[in-house]
Structures
1.
Amino acid sequence: MESIIATRNMRVGLEAGDWREAIRLAGGVLEESGSITREYTESMVTAVEELGPYIVIMPGFAIAHAAPSPAVLREDLALVTLAHPVSFGSPNDPVELILCVACVDRESHVRALQAVAEVLCGDGVMERLAKASDVEELARILSGE
Amino acid sequence: MGEIKIQAVCGFGCGSSLFLRIKIDNVLSAHGLKARTFCGDVGTCCSADCDVIFISAELGERIKDRAKVPIVIINNFMDDKEVSEKVLAYFDTLK
C-alpha cells in the first residue's frame, strides 16, 4: 500500500535551532521534491510571525502551512521529526513533529490531509512517530502498522 | 431552527482547521447530531454565514470583537475529550 505521505517527503531527526529553522527544514523537503518554491516556505514562517503559534495544534505537533498561492506548484505533504524539540511559544510546546502542508486550494488536498489526521489521532501514534528511528518506520506507522 | 452551520477556523482555512473539522464531524456522528461543518480562515470567517465558530485560543483573540456568532475556543485540536465536550456544550445552548 502506498503511504499517505511519500517517503521522499519524510525526514527523521533533523537538527533545528529554533522554530523558524524547523519550518524552513520542513519546507525545504517540499522544495526538493519540486512541490513548492522557497517563497511558500517563507510564507509559512511569516504566517506564524503574524498569526502566532496556533499551528501547534496539539502537544508536540505543528502543522506548517500558508495560504494557497502560485508558490505551490502541486499539492503535497511532508513530515519531519526533530532530533531536539523546539519551542514555538505555544501551550503545546515543545514541538518535535512537523507536518508541512502545501495546498493549491481549500479542497483538493482534503482527502490526503484527512487520511493523515485520522492516523495521527490514533492512541500513541504521535509518540511513536516522534521516536521513529528512520523514514521506513515513519511510513509503517502512517500506514497503520 | 434550520440546519446548524459550524465553521472551523485556522489561519488560511486549509490546514489545521481541517483537523478540527474532522474532529467535530466525528463528535456529531457519534452523538447523532446534525450540522454542516466547513473550514474558514481567520481573515474572512466573521463574514462567512455560520451559527458558531470553532477556533484556537490565539486566533480566537483576534476575532472575538468582530464575530457575530458564538466563538468556541479549542486548545488542543486533537483532544477528543475537549472537542467532544465543547461541541456538546454548544448544542446544549440551543435547547
2.
Amino acid sequence: MAVYFQKREVVVPGQLLAEGRYRSSFGTYDEGGKIYSSLMGLAELRGNTVKVVALEGAYIPKEGDLVIGVITLVAGNNWKVDIGGPYGASLHANNALRRPYSDDISEYMDMGDVISAEVSAFDRQSGPFLSMKGRGLEVLEGGMVLEVSPAKIPRIIGRRGSMINMINDHLRIDTVIGQNGRIWIKSPDVKRLRLAIKAFKMIEDQAHTSNLTDRINRMLAEEVAKLGGSDSSEEPSAEVETVDEEEPIEDETVIEPEPEIIEAPEPEAEAESEAEIVEEAPVEEESEPEASTDEDDKPETEEVNE
Amino acid sequence: MSPEIKPDFLISPEGLRVDGRRPDELRPIELKVGVLKQADGSASIRQGKTYILAAVYGPRELHPRHLTLNDRAYLRVEYRMATFSVPDRKRPAPSRREKEISMVIANALKPALFLEEYPKAVVDVFIQVIQADGGTRCAAINAASLALADAGIPMKSLVPAVAVGKADGQLLVDLGDEEDKYGQGDVPMAILPQTGEITLLQQDGFFTREELIEAMQMGINSCKYLHELQKDALKRVYVRNPEDGEDDFDDDLEADLGESEIMEDE
C-alpha cells in the first residue's frame, strides 16, 4: 500500500505509481496489483483512484463532449463532420433539424460550415455520432476557430469555468470551447481577438504549471489597460475598429451565441475529471507573482504513504 | 572522403576500443524530445556520430483504408536513411534493408503500445537517419519510443535498445561503425525494462551459447541505463530545473572521464 508519486508530478510511461488497494483509471494500467503510468502527464490521486492527466494526445471522442466541427460532406440525410483526431463524425439531419425539413439538407448547413455539436454516441464499432439538439448547439458564424492541443482544453476551461470566464470578462468576447481542441472566438475587434489568441496560446504552453489563472489574469489586465485605457474595460462595444472578418452574418436559424450557457455543461464534466489539476494553490496567494513553477510546486507536494 | 581502412586492431593492448571506450561503455548519448514543431511527437538521438530524428503523427485516419485493423490502431513505421548519411551516397530509393529495419522497429515497439485504444486509426512513425555510424536501428528505437511518448500514445513503458557485438573475441556494448564492419558479430536488442521482456533480438556472426547469454546480459544492463536517460529526456520537456547546469547533455556515466564539464560549455 503505497503511492510513489507526488501530487501533480510529471510522470513518464512505465513509471510505477502505486501499489496495493488502488484503482487504475485513465492514463494508467494495472499489472499484478501495481499501477503504472501509460502516458507522459501529471499524476493524480483522487480517493483511491490513480490517474494521469495527459499533456499531449489526439482527440478521442467521448459521449457528451461538446465539439466544434467543420462540415466536410453532405451525404443524403447525413453531414460528415471533421472534429479533429482520428475519427470523422457524422450528424444525421434528424438530430439537427426540426421536422419537416427539406430533402436537400445542404440548404441548412453546407460544406465548410462550422458547428458546435454534442457527441451523442461513440464506441469502438461505430464512429462518433453528433447531435445538435440542445441549447447553444448551432452553426457558428462570424468568428474564428483557434486550434489548440485537446489535452489542454480542461486547463483552458479551468475549474468550473474559472479560466474561460475570466478571459471572457476581460476581453468581452464570445467563445465556444470544444473538447476536441477547437476554440471559436468572436471578438468585437481585432486587437482583442489577438489578445484572446495570445492568452489561449499561453495557457497551452504553460498548462502543466500552477497559478496559471493568476498569471493570465494579470497579463490580460495589463494588456487590456494598455489597449483601450478606461473605455475598453467599461464599454467594449463602443470601440470602433476596422473589423472585416468579424461581420456577423445573421441567419434566421441562428440565435446569438451565449457562451455562458454553452459552457455550462463543461464545468461539471470537468470538475469531476480535472478538478485537482486545475486547482490553484490557495496557500501562497500574491506573495510571489512570477515565481517559477518549481517553487510553486514544492509547498503542496506531499508524499502519501499508507 | 578517403576510403576506409580496416584498423589494425579493434581492441588495443590496454583493452580499450578504437574510440577509447571500455568494452561495456556506451557512446555519449544525447536525447532530445519535441524537436519538430509540426509532428504530434518527436525526438532526436545523438549516439556517437549517429544522429537520428523520429517523428510521430497520429493517431489519425488511416489511408489507404484497406490496411484498417478493426480492433486496434495500425503502427506504420518508416525508417529511411538520408542520402548523405553514409560516406558513399546512399541511393534515395527505399532499399530492402530499410524496409526490413522498418518492420523490425515496428515489431520492437508494438508490444509496448496500447494500440487497442484507437481501433481503425493509424500511428505513423517516421525515422530519418541523418548521419549513420553504426547502431542505427537501436538508436532509432530509442528515439521512436520517446517520440511516441511525446505524442501522447499510451504505452506500457519506453523501449530502450542497444547493440552488443563481438570484436577480437571480446564482447562489446554499443558497436560503432568500424566494430560493426570488422567485428565478428552483432546482436541488436530491445527490452521492456519493467518486465525484462525482450522485444527485439537479432544476431549476425557467430556466438557461442555462453557468449550470447553474456552478451544479452550486457545488453540488458545497458538498456536499463538507456531507459534512465530516456526518462530524464522526457521529463526535461516539462520540468525545467535551473540548478541543473548541464541541461543539454545527459550522459553522466562516471566513465565520461571529465568530459561532461567540457560539454557543459556548449
